[in-house]
Amino acid sequence: MHQTDFLPHALRRHRLFESTDIDETRELISRVMQPHSLIPSGRGNGRSHMDFVKIGRLGIGTIAFGTAMRVNVEEVDGYYLMMFCISGEAEVSVAGRNVRVNSERGILRAPGEPFSALLSPDCEQLVMRIDPASFRGDDDARKAPKRFDPVVPLSSDSMRAWKEQLRLVASSPELLSSACANSNVGSNVEALLVSLLDAGRTNSAQHYADRVGVPGFVRRAEELMHAQLSAPLRLIDIAEAAGVPVRTLCDGFLHFRQTSPMQYLKQLRLERARQAILESPSDVRIASIALDCGFSHLGRFAISYRERFGELPSDSVRKR
Question: Where in the chain does DSSP place strands (E)?
């Protein structure tokens, strides 16, 4: 049993529910997070609970199931999910590898990314639901979300300040009550926690890149992507061209590019498509450009294009 001294006394006063019914548990968690699947992996149903409170645009809570549980979220819907364990541990699937999460290592998932975890019977999660506008410092929902290395080393110097401030908020009833009751206090607490998390993740990723340097296999993968944007590249194709296993390739991109290889490829294709749309003659069809840039489904291309650039491809056409 992996224990921690992170004791969220103040959050305990914001108990959302307790239940031994798996369907009720799923429904009540979904009301403040999002729809997901819960698959018990132990014997019988344990007693679940969730504590949850909103501070500005930030949601902070704890979740425990009382039994081993598989949690699957197809795509994190419109928010960042930060998670670590305050007791027990979890095995989280990230980019084809399994990451052990505990009190010293967390996981951060961006909007649109999947979350799948197997929680130990004694696991209690500390979860944060973060509005993308909090990371960007504005309310422009059209901007593409930031991408981070999903593995968060909470024992690093750059993350200790964040964890200590979160511990203070979660354990101090007076501070938490003030942040919930007073919008100015709540906004300041939200800004402090998100800024410390943002700075900690940026510093950790930059420190790692500066210390190690971008490896050759990452550059070889990028060269292949640039040269074959229109080709139906698979992850295994890119890994073979780079000369490394798929897991090594994914780890390299997460550490040095803060995204997965396929997300990196998608962004390259979107950039190329936008350039072609803005520079092509008016008689060139958007569908042709999308196909030339590796997009076989026009509807999904339009959705991804709008998420990335804040406008539809047809809007960009009018800017020619």
Answer: 15-19, 37-40, 48-55, 58-64, 69-73, 80-87, 90-94, 97-101, 105-109, 115-119, 124-130, 151-153
What topology does CATH give the domain 11-211?
Jelly Rolls (2.60.120)
Question: CA 253, CA 72: separation in Å to the nearest integer?
Answer: 24
Find the radius of gyration of the CA atoms of the chain: 21
Among 69-73, 130-134, 280-284, the least confident range: 280-284
Q: Band of the pLDDT at 316, cuts 50, 70, 90?
A: confident
How many angstroms separate the CA atoms of 268 and 30, rounded?
A: 34
The CATH class that applies to domain 216-317 reads mainly alpha
Mean pLDDT of 106-124: 91
pTM: 0.65
Domain residue extents for the chain: 11-211, 216-317
Cα dihedral across residues 241, 217, 246, 147: positive or negative: negative
Q: Show Cβ contacts of residue 102 under 8 Å, excluding neighbours closer than 6 positions.
A: 2, 4, 84, 85, 88, 89, 90
Q: What phi-psi label fits residue 243: left (phi over 0), alpha (psi between -120 and 50 degrees) or beta?
A: left
